[in-house]
Fold this sequence. Notes:
- The protein folds into two domains: 8-95; 97-178, Threonyl-tRNA Synthetase, Chain A, domain 2 (2-Layer Sandwich).
- The chain is 61% helix and 23% strand.
- The chain contains three helices and four strands.
- The longest helix has 86 residues, at 9-94.
Amino acid sequence: MIRINILPYREERKKTELARQIMVLAGVFVIFFLVVAGVHLYMTISLRSLAQEVKAAEERLAALGEVTGDLDKIKKDKLLLEKKIAIIDDLEKGRGRPVVLMEELSATVPIGQVWISTIEKAEDSLRLEGIAIDNPAIALFMQQLEKSPVISSVDLVSSELTTISGTRLMNFKLLCGIRKG
Length: 181
């Protein structure tokens, strides 16, 4: 005998299977949504925390910027003061230098033979113009200048014969090097 089952068990099984698949899919969507919401919440909290750290770091940077600005100003002031002190020390060392130079110059001039009319001092040189009785008097004056501890070198620039009040004299120009120190 043939048995026929009229109950729709296959359709029932398909509906049950379909319902189960829909439930699983809905569960996966819910879990996916919860995971996305959790990640979003975590990222939002992390972002706020990082924003607060950035704000705190910017405030600290501003405070340190003021301190370093003051430090830079102090360094510039210190450098300026050191330069001023160096200039004052140079002036202090060279303060008596012109007096010593003039004293040495007056000690080397042959009395009654050489007369100095012009003295021009540059940084490390001295230009002398004057009148002498003759060329040997100029030579003697140059030798005495070379022996001086203040003068490093003596060069004759020119020597010309001139007449002053009917007397024949030698007009000369000398260029002298000055020793440092």
